[in-house]
Amino acid sequence: MKILLVDDHPLFIEGIRGVLQRLDDNLAIQTTGSCEEAIERTAEDDDVDLLLLDLNLPGVSGLDGLVELRHQLPATPIVLISASEDRNKVLRAIELGAKGYIPKSSTPDIIITALQLVLSGGVYLPMAVLDTVNSSQLKTCNADGQTLTPRQVEVLGLVAEGLSNKAIANRLSMAENTVRVHISAILRFLDVTNRTEAGVAAARMGLLQENES
């Protein structure tokens, strides 16, 4: 497996190298300090299995850098790793094609779990960044006045967190087929077609937003 890490913080690069080694026994990690260098390098060699991108880089950075690299590597999952935990940036990044957003404050276990989810075809949306709370505090009514059941609220929260159907089933002690039924209902409720859109739509609609006291 080949990973391209785009970051200009030497201490972070050295620290995450050891974490990433847990992903694969035959892991090759390449690093660049800027989006421009990453674009230039991948133009010559686009054989990259995963790209990790810091949002705050010199030169082309932030979401502009994400757009450029998505164009350069349309088939490669790009995950943002940033010290910023701006909820709006998270949602915008996912809309622009990022497959995950991992705060640099995350533990090694969370980083590995998130990247494994992305590599298996999922999208990682950290609950902390989305300012979510437990299911009893969630708003559950959409624009048409329709509501979710308490169990569907629980499932929606875990979908937004990036858990697979199997992981949700294990967490909530239910059959995996039941999880699929709940997710189908949630997609209809949110008027979206997939899990990624569900997480973004739920956050934008305020379904994953803290109630004011």
Report on the architecture of this protein:
The protein is an alpha/beta fold and 213 residues long. It folds into 2 domains: 118 residues, Response regulator (Rossmann fold, 3-Layer(aba) Sandwich), CATH 3.40.50.2300; 70 residues, Orthogonal Bundle (Arc Repressor Mutant, subunit A), CATH 1.10.10.10. Helices cover 46% and strands 11% of the residues. It is built from 9 helices and 5 strands. The protein has a 5-stranded parallel sheet, with helices on both faces. The chain is globular, with a radius of gyration of 18 Å. The termini are far apart. 36% of the residues are buried. The C terminus is likely disordered.
Short description:
This protein is 46% helix and 11% strand. With 213 residues, the protein is of the alpha/beta class.
Which structural traits does this protein have?
5-stranded parallel beta sheet, Rossmann fold, alpha/beta, 213 residues, 11% strand, Arc Repressor Mutant, subunit A
Shape: globular
Unreliable stretches covering 5 or more consecutive residues: 131-138, 209-213
CATH superfamily of the largest domain: Response regulator
Percent range for helical residues? 40-55%
What's the CATH architecture of the largest domain? 3-Layer(aba) Sandwich
Task: List strands and helices in order, with pairings.
Blueprint: E1 2-6, H1 10-20, E2 28-32, H2 35-44, E3 50-53, H3 62-72, E4 78-82, H4 87-95, E5 100-103, H5 108-119, H6 150-161, H7 165-172, H8 176-190, H9 195-204
Parallel strand pairs: 1-2, 1-3, 3-4, 4-5
Helix pairs in contact: 2-3, 6-8, 6-9, 7-8, 8-9
